[in-house]
Fold:
Amino acid sequence: MKNENNIENKINQALNSIEGIESAEVKPFFYTRLQARMENQIAPSYGRFSILANLKLSLAMLAVFFVFNLTSVIYLTGSQDTDSTTTSAIDEFSEEYFSTPNVYDYLNEY
Amino acid sequence: MLQNESDAEETAQDVFIEVHRSIGAFRGESKLSTWLYRIATTKSLELIRKNKRQKRFAFLQSLAGSNETSDSLKQAHFIHPGIEMEQKENAEALFQAIGQLPETQKVAFTLHKIEGLAYQQIADIMQTSVSSVESLMFRGRKNLQKSLKSFYEKNFKD
Structure:
């Protein structure tokens, strides 16, 4: 009986032991460690697309891309006229080397 | 709730990182402190579950003959740093009993008794009703009494 009362007292003491508990403090240099971890974890999360995370740079790159495309289109459209001359040059080359009578034909004459 | 200093620090860091990542998703429907407590609670429970899984795995490993256990799994004698000196012995038994509570009871009890939050705020954090929190507290207290009774009976016998 006495033992039971003792246990009952101990239980109540244990339950009341957290009355007036204070908040646990973090260890020194917690924020330094946190900062280091955040730099490691958050910064590389953009990965190899980190450049694209910068909107201004992305827009600038897009503009350059369009300028290059536009230049290419203009250049290609303008160069279509020269196709005929290019073709004729190829024809000349072809005629020179393949359409002329076979220079070795004389060998067959014998 | 975690009952391990290094686990608590790791989780605190996780909470900061999570807040940094998802602050844009915070719509202001609840108080900022409630939102922070919710993240902290979720992260703590995640780590507790992870540790439990590792414990089970370590048990299987021990059956296979390996004796390696990580530091975070050794929680034998935790004493909260905010406990008064003369209460440390009693508090140690209590924290051991808290560690055995089911998750929801553990969260409710810890937030109310250790963090000193009101039932309404706990209900907001746990996304449940105040009456549910009251019920969790009642059942938690009963379970603690049961655990402590068996603890002291065993200790008095020894």
